[in-house]
Amino acid sequence: MNQSIEQNAESLIALLRSYRRVAVAFSGGVDSSVVAAACHKAGLDFTCAVTAQSPSVASWQLKTAVAVAAEIGIIHHVVQTGEVDNFDYQRNDSNRCFYCKDTLYASIGEVIGNLFDDQEHEVTVVSGTNYDDLGDHRPGITAGNRRQVVTPLAALEFGKAEVRDLARYFGLSNHDLPAAPCLASRIAYGVEVTRQRLSQIEQGEAWLRDHGVAECRVRLQHDGLARIEVPRDLLELVLRLEFQEQLVGHFKLLGFNFVTLDLEGFQSGKLNRAIVPLELPKPLREKGTPNNEQG
User: Residue 27 gets which letter from DSSP?
Assistant: First the structure.
């Protein structure tokens, strides 16, 4: 993009002004925070943010979402989502994210239905999908498309760099927050997603952060193997933690059978290397017909 940050902000706000009422799928991450802030600044008839509360969402992420929503000044709803009880989600094939996002958007639809019970008050659901997201395996985007979710950042071709610039421009406190996908994204495809496994991963990553490892992933592989990914410049720190704090012993107490350190270092989406995307389910509904059932 050749536009200035100010022009990008104006373009985003102007695009959002074309919608009278908006509900933001709000994780508290940088992307959705920029969209929420722009919606709030657009002066729409109605704007709210909706955040999922689920075993697949780390507790620190929910706290961040609550804090950032208050900082923006946007109406904020936290809803319990039931994707972890969905068999299609639990089985954890390469389209797991489809069922997660479809459940989220159905839950947002229920929030909207409770607020506005007539068709005259149409509310548009928007997400923080950015232009760079379009190049990866993202079944969640397909779920959004089928629910007619609007993606303003992608529409304006704003990638990760532009979005972080906008976060700084809007004065958001989380402008430098590392990307943090849901905890289920750490579980190797084919390994069943359970509450226990999600908790193991959350506790393992929390232990690492408490010991100075600011960015990390604890990947759960087959046979209960924990594969720790950190940026390469933090590999030595993790090795020191094993000598000083008995990292392996702690992880075994959490329920992992084996613990390894990935010498290649942290790379987002690494589990996607080995997959062949499966065919997604047929559309859940005809265009314009509400459907609040899980996928």
Answer: -
52 forms bridges with which residues in the sheet? 79
Burial category of 188 from C-beta neighbours within 10 Å (exposed 0-12, middle 13-18, buried 19 and up): middle
Query: In whole angstroms, what is the distance from residue 231 CA to residue 250 CA?
Result: 21
Q: How many CB atoms lie within 10 A of CB 192?
A: 11
Q: Are 219 and 227 in contact (CB under 8 A)?
A: yes
CATH class label, 5-169:
alpha beta
Q: What distance lies between CA 239 and its chain's CA centroid? A: 29
Domain 183-274 has CATH 1.10.3470: no
pLDDT tens-digit profile of 25-65? Answer: 999 999 999 999 999 999 999 999 999 999 999 999 999 99
The predicted model scores a pTM of 0.87
For 166-224, how does the pLDDT look when each residue is reduced to its tens digit (9 = 90+)? Answer: 999 999 999 999 888 899 999 999 999 999 999 999 999 999 999 999 899 999 999 99
Q: In the chain, where does the domain assigned CATH 3.40.50.620 lie?
A: 5-169
Beta-strand runs (E) in the chain: 21-25, 46-53, 75-80, 124-126, 217-220, 225-229, 258-261
Residue 268 backbone dihedrals phi, psi, to 5 degrees: -60, 140
Helix (H, G, I), strand (E, B) or coil at 160: helix
